Amino acid sequence: MKTGNRWVIAIAGVFLQIALGAVYAWSVFRIPLSKQFGWSISQVTFTFTISIFVLGFAAFFGGLWMNRVGPRTVALTAGTFYGLGVFLASFSANKLWWLYLSYGVIGGIGLGLGYIVPVATLVKWFPDRRGLITGIAVGGFGAGALITAPVATRLIQTVGVLRTFAYLGVAYFIVTIIASLFMRNPPEGWQPEGWTPSEKETAQRATHDFVLSEALKAWQWWALWLILFLNTSAGIAIISQEAPIFEELTKASAIVAGGMVGIASLGNGVGRVFWAWLSDLITRRGTFTVMFIVQVLLFWFLPTITVPSIMTTVTFVILMCYGGGFGTMPAFTADYFGPKNVGPIYGLMLTAWSFASVFGPLYIARMRETTGNYSGALHFIAIVMFGSVLLPIIVRPPRRERSM
Fold first, then answer.
1. 3-class secondary structure for 372-399?
2. 155-167: pLDDT as tens digits
3. Which domains does the chain have, with CATH numbers?
4. How far is it, in rounded angstroms, from Cα 50 to Cα 99?
5. Measured distance CA(197)–CA(184) in Å, rounded
6. Which residues, other chains included, contact 106 with Cβ-Cβ below 8 Å and sequence gap of 6+?
7. pTM, 2 dp
8. No. of H helices and E strands in the chain?
């Protein structure tokens, strides 16, 4: 296959991720759902928590399934589940359990099955640009809310929150199905013409492809899982409450806050590409170290910000770090355990995202309900980020003797 054609697959993967990443615009639904049906902050936030929790486990099974049937079948199944789940959420009037089942469980299955496909596929097509391409592969997911947040806000005000789910579900289904048709693996043993890994790249990579059971016996897998969990917990706490935080701290209107969510969410997508690209230059370990240090400072000072433009900028950078974790970790995993089985190995690692989706959003929502403000929760996250700096400093590649 010609090298140029792999970029067509990459572009399709980005569009697939943009549709899936619309889940990050969930915060614009929080206030309308609470006002219309009387559900609490925690109850509405739990919908987002369920969808991301299910995503992590569905990604693992999607990775295993891809090894048997290929990426296209998994992606088509993902698009069907995701579009259907969001559409069915339009029938959630006064039925919180139905919202959890449709958007949370059914939609979450589609999210997980679809998310792992571009990641595991493109890392095989681009061994020469592993960091950059994994960032691009998930960059669309981070940018999904940029489009969805302002569109959903307008739709909610014109047609209502439930009908908005119906419209979005149909749109997601169309985009994901079309993008899925381009997904396929490279031929066995394929590599870019004229490319050979440098000595530096070879030193940072596994000498063979680990299988899942072998990877789980290495402490490095668990260290990477914890790094991803901590980085994700911080960012996803902000994402789950973005619009309410903006409205409360800056006194912005719902429309303005929705626009702020869209702009700040762009950082999620930019960060996935930027930090992943940077990790090719300063190593994956150095990248996570810098991201944790940046978040210590930003989370500590975030509660004192009242100017909308500054708040948007700071949140943009926080979400760059959040997205950077997802952009960098697939390459980190492929470096340490090989690209062949990165689907199930990284797919299982995404359970860190699942558990972070429980801890982060529910923690910040509960703190807001009990204290009446977001300051305590944001300061606690800053302290957690300070302790997290140690992990990327101490982690090292699996011993070459072990892998040989």
1. CCCHHHHHHHHHHHHHHCHHHHHCCCCC
2. 999 998 999 999 9
3. 5-186+207-395 (1.20.1250.20)
4. 10
5. 23
6. 81, 84, 85, 88
7. 0.78
8. 20, 0
